[in-house]
Specification:
This protein is mostly beta strands. The protein has a domain at about 15-45. It has one helix spanning about 110-115, and strands spanning about 10-15, 20-30, 35-50, 60-65, 65-70, 75-80, 85, 95, 105-110. The chain is globular, with a radius of gyration of 14 Å. The model is unreliable at about 120-124 (pLDDT under 50). This is Cupin.
Length: about 120
Amino acid sequence: MKIQNIDQGAATPVEMDGVAGCQVKQLISEQDGAPLFAMRQFEVAPGGYTPHHHHPYEHEVYVIAGEGVVLENDSPQPIKAGDAILVKPDEVHQFRNTGSIPLKFLCLVPNAANNAQFPPECQD
């Protein structure tokens, strides 16, 4: 068993094309003995955003702080703390912070996707 407070551990800037003001913290990963899924915490600064992208796997998102929009293709859907979001496989999406405080959300993905998306130094 692993127990980690969400405020523990270091966040790593997300350095990809089409990203601004975004960092990620690995909370649970394959390295912790989780065989199927990884849990990550993203923090997007005011005015920041994740890439406008799609991938062949689903992921689940839970907003823990702030507000913003998630683009579903090019259509913005408002999101705020307490919202749960399902991004279906191959659905084009992007998270944008439209508020004045950091937008923080948990993101759960299959381990294979987590490992392919982040280099080893981000998988702590």
